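Hi team,

Filling in the usual template for the complex we talked about on Friday. All components are listed, including any nucleic acid strands or ligand strings, so the model treats them as one assembly.

SUBMITTER: L.P.
PURPOSE: interface mapping
COMPONENTS: two
RESIDUES: 252
SEQUENCES:
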Amino acid sequence: MTVADIVTALNLEVLSGAKGLQREVTGGYTSDLLSDVMGFADAGAVWVTLQTHKNVMAVASLKELGAIVLVKGFKPEPDTVEQSNEEEIPVLGTDLSAFEITGKLYNLLNQ
Amino acid sequence: MHFEYKVQGGDFARAGLASSQVKKVLKQLNVDAKVIKRVVVAMYEAEVNIVAHAYQGTINVDIDTERIVLNLKDHGPGIPDIPLAMQRGYSTASPVVREMGFGAGMGLPNIQSNADEFKITSEVGKGTNLEIVVYLNVPQE
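RESULT (copied from the run log):
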């Protein structure tokens, strides 16, 4: 499944990094603690979080994550957008809570 | 092969830059992907620790055919109780740093679990020194 497939299926907004929409997604991880994601998320995961600052992109890039989903209508900071576009790792948005979008994502990936 | 990076305390905008550069070098050298992952996790955590806690620091990276040695030396407040600092969940990070999702008390344990050798020494009021070694050849399990 690609990031683009997830965007369509879960009605997500593409906030940045649209060039990376064909990245392959192999799982998901939900956490607002960067060290948790750094230590335990797998490459290709979609990361669900409410953190919007640039360090999120540093973690996503180092871990080679598939995409980031910002919950509850949060928007990425300008330097996050910039790095997302550079690294071609999409930042996506939803108005749903982390709980709700994680449930939907889990079901979608385990269909 | 030797690399040196300077890290500035408080400069979160650049946190992870040195780790990212080392990752690129290791990829170019065709280092095993699992080894790269471990180096990157350990180095990023250690780099962020300097940004979050110290005034400034230097990261020295040495790569040879057998191992990668990361040496991180900072000028900072130091760690009075290392065994306590090594406990998962213990953190002295400021509220601002915690709000960013850092300071969960997972950094040092993450470093240790990804290193083949790990040494930490610290002097209160002077700074902290980390030596992280990751072997290039993954032992057969």
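MY TAKE: The CA atoms of residues 56 and 79 of chain A lie 11 Å apart. Chain A has five helices and five strands.

Thanks, L.
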